[in-house]
Amino acid sequence: MTTIKDSVHDHIEVAGVAADLLETPPVQRLRHVKQLGTVDLVYPSANHTRFEHSLGVYYLADRALSHLGIEGQQAERVRAAALLHDVGHSPYSHNVEGLLHRETGKYHDDVHGLLGRGEVARGLTEHDLDPDAVADLVAGDAELGQLVSGELDVDRMDYLVRDAHHTGVPYGTIDHERLLRELRFVDGELVLDEGNVQTAESLLLARALMNPTVYQHHVARIAKSMLRRGTERLLAETDVDAEELRRWDDSDLLVALRDCEATAGYARRLDERKLFKRGVWAERRAVPDDILEADHDQIREYERTIADEAEVDSDAVVLDVPDEPSMTESTSRVVVNGEVRRLGDQSTLVDALRAAQRDQWRLGVYAPEAVSERVGNVAIRTLGLDLEGSLVRDVRPGVHATLDEFR
Asked: What are the E-state strand segments in 173-237?
């Protein structure tokens, strides 16, 4: 057994299959993949890693299994899945995942290939665990997979608390001990026991508050967009393969960006925090439906058109159209008067938070500071944004923000 001091959960005891998996290269690689990608350019202390998070998820999974009375090989499979759930992450976590999915067809939780070979496979089979069964749990399949990946999973419980701790913001604080104690399985579904509507709401509220403050902070979004653009160019201009890049860590990617002439400018800007600025920051109601529904190729075409009309290089314009807001936690189940109900059907808070998410949604157009105002004005015309009466220009050139953001 190994005991590790953790900044969030204090001492974590790692035993059994997890102790053997801990020293394998895929798990150790996570020491060099930041949990929050580019968010440390906003919150300097947000430099915690996927390795720390994986230990935290293992710890919470172990606690949940104890409360649920699950033991033996079933429990060992879940503990292994909890520790391994992030080994599929690409460099900078989610920041380039969409790009790599377009190239490889795989997301970070598609880990069957990774768990089925090498030291991880040997560690699992030595403990009589089927790598495919563990990979299924990582993907959230089967009843116990809900503990690792689902609406009430221990992954979410750890990252909210850990991200809040390392950024210094208070919004991710949740009572994860109560959440763990109140978990139950009812007809194969993981639910919170009677009297825990507010407990479920706390998880929902924490995620809703962390999203605009941390995960979707505009500076982090700009840096993520630049990193993604640089990575896309790297794959196009070099013989780097997307499958190979998926297994790099953060430093590998940054060095590759520095060493490639076509991407060195992006690397330098990220290194020196000389990021693009907002030329447009538009509310959802100001954006035409065809822009919201545009795919990657259409967005790139919009960027080229804006760049041509603004007379700037095509790489100097980034159009950032976020996905429609979602609230996975609202589908979590709670027991009310002996009946299992969806939180979204039981809690009036859910509708209010959904409305808040829609209000917080922003389309961004980013460009180097010297040309951001010109690019922004062209983008408004090109994209057909209806900004009349709903937005004002920031005190900084080229930035548009809603009136609410100045209050």
From this structure: 183-186, 189-192
Dihedral over Cα of 175, 180, 186, 188: its sign: positive
The residue among 358, 346, 96, 378 whose CA lies nearest residue 242 is 96
Instruction: Determine the Cα–Cα distance for residues 267 and 223; give it in Å rounded to an integer.
Output: 11
Domain that holds residue 75: 2-215+332-356
| Spatial CA neighbour of 270 closest among 103, 89, 37 | 37
Percent of the chain with pLDDT over 70: 95
CB-based contacts of 72, cutoff 8 Å, min separation 6? none
Determine the Cα–Cα distance for residues 101 and 109; give it in Å rounded to an integer: 11
What global pTM score does this model have? 0.92
Please give the pLDDT value at position 389. Answer: 52
**Which CATH number do you get for residue 97?**
1.10.3210.10
How many domains does one find in the chain? 2
119 in the same domain as 10: yes
Region 367-373: mean pLDDT is 97
Q: pLDDT class for 407, splitting at 50, 70, 90?
A: very low
* Shared domain check, 31 and 95: yes
